[in-house]
Write a structure and sequence with these properties.
This protein is an alpha/beta fold. It has two domains: 29 residues, no CATH class; 207 residues, Rossmann fold. The chain has eight helices and seven strands, in the order αααβαβαβαβαβαββ. Bound molecules: S-adenosylmethionine.
């Protein structure tokens, strides 16, 4: 009896795959990890009274992820009283030359993941594509392009150096620049903490005392390969004026 129940309880890969396929069919998008970040950000934004928020993908390449983000936002807009600005950042010409040993040059090479920007722009229905090196485009966007607070960010730039520049979106102390908590997905966590994206995250945490970018302790152990819980991080700004406002809508039992 115990064996049978364990067979049903065990998160069997086929069961997970079937569930994932069914969900994707029903909703029209498949990146559960993108969806979870945007949905969690949406619930908080709505509870805090926001009517609009910005959702970003860093590293667009052929555009598969950005097209999914558009669909996710359209799906959520039909269910929550909020609208989204969707923004994708990319060089437009694929990976630049690695500039630092922490960019893991034995794994990535210049020119990979190039994009057909004109074709992608035609396929996008609402997202804004910001082309150029993030070292230049991010400061410019934060000064001139941001219309609604940032609520969710998908980081998929592969490099330590590019991710370090992208993380400067959290440098602003303007309360309208980001929500007090921002839900982030990091695609490239596959190496040791001293190199790659993990080193960009730990440097961010060392240089900021009152802002932290950490994995959610509970989600870190979420091993479902379609949910990718261990790759979902939370940015917390302890000094944001909304940080202590109650967002939980139901009283616990
Ligand atoms: C793995 S691809 C992104 C894939 C995409 N997110 C998807 O899911 O289809 C990584 C992208 O990061 C971009 N990238 C890397 N370094 C960059 C930089 N310094 N500035 C802007 N884009 C950069 C590359 O152009 C490349 O398209």
């Amino acid at each position: 009896m115990r064996l049978i129940s364990r067979l049903f309880d065990f998160p069997h890969p086929i069961r997970l795959a079937v569930r994932h396929k069914l969900r994707s069919r029903l909703r029209g998008f498949s990146r559960e990890h993108y969806f979870n970040c945007v949905r969690r950000a949406t619930e908080e934004a709505v509870a805090l009274g926001h009517k609009r928020m910005t959702v970003i993908e860093f590293g667009v390449a052929s555009g598969k992820g950005l097209l999914e983000l558009e669909q996710i936002c359209t799906w959520l807009e039909a269910r929550y009283p909020i609208g989204y600005d969707v923004v994708g950042f990319d060089t437009g010409t694929g990976l630049p030359k690695p500039t630092d040993i922490r960019d893991i040059p034995w794994k990535w090479a210049e020119g990979w993941y190039d994009m057909d920007a004109e074709n992608l722009r035609r396929r996008l229905s609402r997202a804004k594509l910001v082309l150029g090196d993030v070292a230049d485009t991010v400061p410019d966007f934060m000064n001139n392009g941001l219309a609604a607070p940032i609520g969710a960010v998908m980081f998929d730039l592969d490099y330590y150096s590019a991710t370090t520049h992208a993380l400067t979106i959290f440098d602003s102390d303007d309360a309208d620049a980001q929500l007090c908590r921002v839900y982030c997905y990091f695609d490239d966590l596959g190496s040791i903490e001293d190199i790659g994206v993990p080193s960009a995250i730990s440097e961010f945490n060392s240089r900021n005392i009152r802002k932290k970018l950490k994995p959610n302790v509970r989600w870190q152990h979420h091993r479902d390969p379609y949910v990718l819980g261990w790759k979902i991080y939370e940015f917390h700004n302890f000094d944001h004026p909304d940080y202590t406002r109650l967002v939980r809508t139901e009283k616990p039992l």
